[in-house]
Amino acid sequence: MSDSKYWNKTVETMPRKQLRELQYKKLKSQVRHCYDNSPFYQRKFKAAGITPASIKSLDDLSKIPFTVKTDLRDNYPTGLVAVDSAEVVEIHASSGTTGNPIIGAYTKSDMEAWQEIMARSIYTAGGRREDVIHIAYGYGLFTGGLGFHYGAQKVGAEIVPASSGMTQRQIKLMKDLGVTILCCTPSFAVYLAETMNTIGVNPRKDLKLRLGLFGAEPWSERTRQRVNEALGIDAFDVYGLTELCGPGVSMECPEHNGMHIWEDHFIVETIDPETGEVLPEGEEGELVFTPLSKMGMPILRYRTRDISVIETDMCPCMRTHSRMMRVSGRSDDMLIIRGVNVFPSQIEYVIMGFPELATQYEIHVDRPDALDTFAVKVELNEEYSKSSCVNLNDLKRRILSKINNITGLNPEIHILKYGELARTEGKAKHVFDNRKGKT
Ligand code: ADP
Ligand code: ZN
């Protein structure tokens, strides 16, 4: 197995027709499982006037109503669990900060399926049993830490379960233990790189790092270039959410042309977030997933609110599983500023194009009077912060003009010194919208 580029060649390169047949077979048994064992879905099916017999092909998926985040919150904690409580072996929860958390309940077979797709994901990026994998996603209820842990364990690699916190000690461990793969949020990867620079650790000389597996939040192509450059690695994007299992729903291959969705375990659809209408392949919209192997908490047509595009043309890696392009944002992250739609990722893209700037940024929106105010705070990078020859006014003007080109808006630009904005060890907070409740 170890010289193949595939973890499971038969599945990963399965002809699409066969893959769709497999999906249909698994969909039928998921629908049956929901119908027989989930009071939540019994109610939903009844309201929609459908039974398992209504699903006669994959196209009939659209007869099933969507499941949304509030369904999970309203049925907290176990309203969607479809097995006897003794079958549940593990619980996770999303990092959401308001209201009831979203819970994931896993049976033994759910854990096995998750471990399998995480191992496949790590292997797809090039992780092998010879690697030393440093996991700096948080361990605990968050699916990031343990998800990567289970996968790396199955690959047979040496695991450093660093979790979050104590950044300098993490760098010491990476150096002393010869860590080759770093798994964490892209924001933490950036922070690690900055800290290494500050404390005089040269990743190219002092570390053996070769790969980064970064996910759990949106990040741009330019951030990838910067992290690759700063750490001397090849960084991969990995995607997932608690509601579906956690990380491992999709993973980039070495072609870096989108994340292969493991379609033997998930059906993906793209919809118009406003109307709910299913969009043709290749159009940007909200991703809707139907997991096919979930027993503990089966979920049908889950609206993720994540915006992306799906491509199904053959990837040069020969994996047949379709690819989702970078998530441009969540539909609920989208800011409407003076009537204009703005995704934080658009601002990030601009900022990462300026070598004079560090990677940290904040977007502040407020409505002191009738009009929205919009400000972007950025930092000079460490070198420029120390130098007196930066023309701040000119830099400001150039940043503003780039943001204006993309959004048509003219935010106030604040250029701060390196290190003045707060850093994070988990998912970064970039948006501060203080308009809530102000009209
Ligand atoms: P929470 O909703 O509390 O953040 P999760 O921890 O389950 O819950 O996070 C899942 C969400 O994180 C996804 O729905 C998506 O918005 C985001 N996410 C995960 N991986 C990526 C990625 N690679 N790129 C962009 N966004 C991602
Ligand atoms: Zn590929």
Total E-strand runs: 21
- Can you tell me the CATH architecture of the largest domain? 3-Layer(aba) Sandwich
**Helix content bin:** 25-40%
Average predicted confidence as pLDDT: 94
What is the CATH domain class of the largest domain? Alpha Beta
Number of helices: 13
- As residue ranges, the low-confidence spans are none
Outline: globular
Radius of gyration: 22 Å
CATH fold description of the largest domain: Rossmann fold
Tell me the strand order in the biggest sheet.
4-3-5-6-7-8-9-14-13
Count of structural domains: 2
Tell me the CATH superfamily of the largest domain. ANL, N-terminal domain
Ligand identities: adenosine-5'-diphosphate, zinc ion
User: DSSP strand (E) fraction?
Assistant: 15-25%
Distance between the termini: 61 Å
The class by helix and strand makeup works out as alpha/beta
Query: What's the story with the biggest beta sheet?
Result: 9 strands, mixed
Task: Provide an overview of this structure.
The protein has 439 residues and is an alpha/beta fold. It folds into two domains: 1-327, ANL, N-terminal domain (Rossmann fold), CATH 3.40.50; 335-433, ANL, C-terminal domain (GMP Synthetase, Chain A, domain 3). It has helices at 9-12, 16-37, 39-48, 69-74, 108-125, 143-155, 167-176, 186-199, 203-206, 221-231, 344-352, 382-386, 392-407, and strands at residues 88-93, 103-107, 132-135, 158-160, 181-184, 211-215, 234-241, 246-252, 259-261, 266-271, 285-291, 302-308, 310-311, 323-324, 329-330, 335-337, 340-342, 357-366, 373-380, 412-416, 431-433. Strands 4-3-5-6-7-8-9-14-13 form a nine-stranded mixed sheet. Strand 16 (335-337) and strand 17 form a beta hairpin. The chain is globular. The mean pLDDT is 94. The structure holds adenosine-5'-diphosphate and zinc ion. Adenosine-5'-diphosphate binds at residues 94-96, 215-218, 237-242, 304, 306, 327, 330.
